[in-house]
């Protein structure tokens, strides 16, 4: 046992004899699912039972401050721990969960454009001002990360265009229903089925695919002509259920804007973007009013988020690959802003030419791709990767700019970040967080639904603070601080209670 105090009295010895320093904070008593520190009542009885000893003890003046400090700080830990487990003690089923994605909603659009309905939404709940998404910052990889909690290299949906070297299959988002490309992960709408829940998804990427031989209870094939009110109407119907079938416990809803407008006009086109962002905000208002009308508002948890942001492009920022090497030297699998190449000739020769191709493009061999991207350990990632700088576009040849706005760039760029807002009985009210990783949403949603999460790259520790039943306290940090404070107080107490001549020697030694 570690000695906490250099001059421990007998009553402290008896109290700490069965405890290690960690036990003071980690020992728990579980009653009815509530996890707490050793009851304060027990500590009070222990202190009261020793009142006469304490009163007569000449060391009382140095022991009581530490006891009181310990009681106060452990009380804080007890409160935070109790809060963090309160939801698990409830026997009632969790509220349904709805997640809505507005594709291409860049985080700073919240400040650049009037969004009265969305502001009203997150002011009643929580707002994550910037969500750090996964690389590449494309639609399919990030939508799959949101519902699996996995990086692209882990769930296998690594790009908008893919080639699998084992099966020689090709993937494009316009032909995406082959389960082969999705089966490396399990989305939450499948996981929730195992808990006996019904689930639904309205045009969320991958939701109409027979992933691991299963689909959501309700889903719709992608149909761009279906307007937002109709999509929302289907989702609310699925949530409510009817006389024949109970409502779903999880639902996902996808909408294409503001991504479409951002691609056509670019995010810096204020006129076009203002018009589209008003439509997006009107859709948020419709969402809130429909949930109110149907009686769902206040009884379900609602998350609004996006997959990525958008960067402004220009015709004078083109990177032409054919200026660097002949087209016979490579096969282009995916284009811009992250180009994926298979060398047809000597790989090192091709790489050397691409490496010095353009000042605003960085070339990597897959095996040397930076760890922070989590984009290396999958065979669908091609041998050579080219990353354009923000706002630059990779083309094979010519002077035509494909899009005025684009995404897919480095996921550390603020222009690539979306946001997250959430409202419901499980969320805090009026709470803001500056940033969070998008993979942390999945374990949070699993907690909200009380379903066991599949292995994932996220962490509930990074998102639990959004929940009103969870604590924002960093318990390990608190324990460290408490132990540190107690040790410092012990050292000071020892010095102060030494004889004067010994105290002088101790202080001079310090």
Task: Characterise this structure.
The protein has 510 residues and is an alpha/beta fold. The chain folds into three domains: 10-86 and 472-509; 101-311 and 412-466, Alkaline Phosphatase, subunit A (3-Layer(aba) Sandwich); 318-402, Gyrase A, domain 2, CATH 3.30.1360. Helices cover 35% and strands 17% of the residues. It contains 17 helices and 20 strands. The chain has helices at 10-16, 23-26, 40-49, 51-56, 60-84, 109-112, 116-123, 139-148, 152-155, 188-191, 228-240, 259-265, 270-293, 347-355, 441-449, 475-496, 500-509, and strands at 29-31, 34-36, 97-102, 126-132, 161-163, 170-172, 199-202, 218-220, 250-255, 301-305, 311-312, 318-320, 330-334, 338-343, 361-365, 384-388, 393-395, 405-406, 420-423, 431-437. The protein has an eight-stranded mixed beta sheet, sandwiched between helices. Helix 5 (60-84) packs antiparallel against helix 16, helix 7 (116-123) crosses helix 13 and helix 11 packs parallel to helix 13 (270-293). The longest helix is centred in the first third of the chain and has 25 residues, at 60-84. Residues 1-56 and 76-90 have low confidence and may be disordered.
Trace the largest sheet across and list its strands. Answer: 8-7-9-3-10-19-4-20
Give the mean pLDDT.
86
Proportion of residues in extended strands: 15-25%
Q: How many helical elements?
A: 17
Overall body shape:
globular
Q: First CA to last CA: what distance?
A: 27 Å
User: Helical percent range?
Assistant: 25-40%
Low-confidence stretches: 1-56, 76-90
Given helix and strand content, the structural type is alpha/beta
The total domain count is: 3
The CATH topology name of the largest domain reads: Alkaline Phosphatase, subunit A
Main β-sheet description: 8 strands, mixed
What is the alpha-carbon Rg in Å?
29 Å
Oligomer: single chain
CATH architecture of the largest domain: 3-Layer(aba) Sandwich
**Count of strand segments:** 20
CATH superfamily of the largest domain: Alkaline Phosphatase, subunit A
Top CATH class of the largest domain = Alpha Beta
């Amino acid at each position: 046992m570690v000695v906490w105090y250099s001059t421990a009295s007998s009553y402290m010895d008896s109290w700490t004899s069965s405890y290690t320093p960690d036990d003071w904070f980690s020992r728990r008593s579980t009653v009815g699912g509530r996890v707490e520190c050793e009851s304060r009542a027990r500590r009070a009885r222990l202190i009261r039972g020793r009142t006469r000893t304490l009163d007569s003890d000449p060391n009382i003046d140095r022991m009581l401050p530490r006891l009181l400090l310990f009681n106060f700080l452990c009380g804080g830990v007890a409160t935070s721990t109790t809060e963090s487990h309160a939801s698990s003690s409830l026997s009632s089923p969790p509220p349904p969960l709805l997640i809505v994605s507005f594709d291409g909603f860049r985080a700073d659009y919240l400040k650049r454009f009037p969004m009265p309905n969305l502001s009203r939404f997150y002011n009643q709940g929580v707002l994550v001002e910037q969500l750090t998404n996964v690389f590449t910052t494309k639609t399919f990889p990030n939508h799959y990360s949101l519902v699996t909690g996995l990086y692209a290299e882990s769930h296998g949906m690594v790009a908008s265009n893919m080639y699998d070297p084992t099966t020689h299959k090709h993937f494009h988002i316009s032909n995406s229903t082959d389960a082969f490309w999705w089966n490396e992960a399990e989305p939450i709408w499948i996981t929730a089925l195992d808990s006996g829940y019904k689930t639904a998804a309205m045009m969320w990427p991958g939701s109409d695919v027979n992933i691991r031989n299963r689909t959501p209870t309700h889903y719709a094939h992608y149909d761009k002509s279906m307007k937002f009110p109709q999509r929302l109407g289907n989702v609310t119907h699925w949530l409510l259920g009817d006389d024949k079938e109970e409502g779903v416990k999880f639902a996902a809803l996808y909408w294409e804007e503001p991504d479409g407008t951002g691609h056509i006009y670019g995010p810096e086109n204020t006129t076009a973007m203002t018009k589209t962002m008003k439509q997006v905000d009107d859709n948020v208002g419709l969402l809130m009013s429909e949930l109110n009308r149907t009686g769902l508002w206040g009884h379900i948890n609602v998350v609004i988020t996006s997959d990525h942001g958008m960067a402004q492009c220009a015709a004078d920022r083109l990177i032409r690959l054919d200026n660097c090497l002949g087209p016979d030297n490579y096969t282009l699998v995916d284009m811009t802003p992250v180009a994926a190449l298979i060398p047809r000739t000597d790989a090192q020769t091709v790489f050397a030419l691409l490496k010095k191709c353009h000042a605003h493009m960085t070339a990597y061999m897959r095996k040397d791709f930076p760890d922070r991207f989590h984009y290396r350990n999958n065979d669908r990632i091609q041998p050579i990767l080219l990353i354009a700088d923000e706002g630059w576009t990779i083309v094979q040849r010519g002077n035509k700019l494909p899009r005025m706005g684009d995404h897919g760039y480095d996921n550390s760029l603020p222009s690539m970040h979306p946001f997250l807002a959430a409202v419901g009985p499980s969320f805090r009210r009026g709470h803001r967080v500056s940033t969070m990783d998008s993979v942390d949403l999945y374990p949070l949603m699993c907690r909200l639904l009380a379903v066991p999460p599949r292995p994932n790259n996220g962490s509930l520790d990074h998102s639990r603070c959004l929940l009103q039943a969870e604590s924002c306290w960093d318990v390990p940090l608190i324990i460290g601080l408490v132990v540190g404070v107690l040790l410092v107080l012990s050292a000071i107490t020892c010095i102060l209670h030494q004889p004067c001549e010994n105290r002088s020697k101790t202080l001079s030694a310090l």
